[in-house]
Automatic annotation (TrEMBL):
<feature type="domain" description="OmpR/PhoB-type">
    <location>
        <begin position="19"/>
        <end position="117"/>
    </location>
</feature>
<dbReference type="Pfam" id="PF00486">
    <property type="entry name" value="Trans_reg_C"/>
</dbReference>
<dbReference type="InterPro" id="IPR036388">
    <property type="entry name" value="WH-like_DNA-bd_sf"/>
</dbReference>
<keyword id="KW-0238">DNA-binding</keyword>
<dbReference type="InterPro" id="IPR016032">
    <property type="entry name" value="Sig_transdc_resp-reg_C-effctor"/>
</dbReference>
<keyword id="KW-0805">Transcription regulation</keyword>
<dbReference type="GO" id="GO:0003677">
    <property type="term" value="F:DNA binding"/>
</dbReference>
<dbReference type="InterPro" id="IPR001867">
    <property type="entry name" value="OmpR/PhoB-type_DNA-bd"/>
</dbReference>
<dbReference type="GO" id="GO:0006355">
    <property type="term" value="P:regulation of DNA-templated transcription"/>
</dbReference>
<keyword id="KW-0804">Transcription</keyword>
<feature type="DNA-binding region" description="OmpR/PhoB-type">
    <location>
        <begin position="19"/>
        <end position="117"/>
    </location>
</feature>
<protein>
    <recommendedName>
        <fullName>OmpR/PhoB-type domain-containing protein</fullName>
    </recommendedName>
</protein>
<dbReference type="GO" id="GO:0000160">
    <property type="term" value="P:phosphorelay signal transduction system"/>
</dbReference>
Amino acid sequence: MAFREDALVQRYGQNARGPAKVVLDDRTWLDVERLTVCRNGMNVSLSVTQWLILRCLAKRLNQPVAVRELLRSVWGGCADASVLQKQVWRLRQALEPDPRRPRYIVTVRGQGYMLRGTERNA
């Protein structure tokens, strides 16, 4: 867990965390400060790359984030959209009740991806 935190802080800095908590529904939430995701009362394990994507989406909660911006933020622009698509699919498998019909990490046609949720700062 310390490695994940260090990698994220190095990439984004201490103050670029976005909301402290994001509630996706009554059974799924993520704590951006503690790098934890809880779904149905169980912690969900995510890779550093998945956390970087979530953090980028959480910083603009309920607003679309362009594919190009995500690629630049997560991989420094050294990856293509298919790599992002695979990681988003894996995130959906971890977080969504039905990954084929996403409710939380949605594709906004022509704009990018968006994380839907409610911000909680405490």
